[in-house]
Amino acid sequence: MSISHPALDAGSTLLDVAGAAHDCTLCALAAGRTQVVFGVGAPDARLMFVGEGPGEQEDLQGEPFVGRAGKLLTQLIEGIGLTRDDVYIANVVKCRPPGNRDPLPVEIETCAPWLDRQLELIRPRVVVTLGNFATKLLLETKEGITKLRGQEFAFSRAGTMLATGGDLDAIRLWDVASHRQAGAPLAVPGGVESVAFSPGGGMLATGSTDGTARLWDVASHRQIGAPLKSAGTVDAVAFSPDGAMLATGSTDGAARLWDVATHRQIGSPFSAAGTVWSVAFSPDGAMLATGGPDGRVRLWNVATHRQIGAPLAVPASSVYSVAFSPDGAMLATGGDDDTWLWDVATHRQDGGPLTVPESVASVTFSPDGEILATGSTDGVRLWDVATRRQVGNPLIATNPVAFSLDGRLLATGSIDGVRLWNVADLADIVPQLCASAGQSLTRAEWAQYASGTAYQNVCS
Ligand code: SF4
Question: Which of 76, 227, 236, 254 could share a disulfide with 212, CB 3.0–4.6 Å?
Answer without folding.
Answer: 227
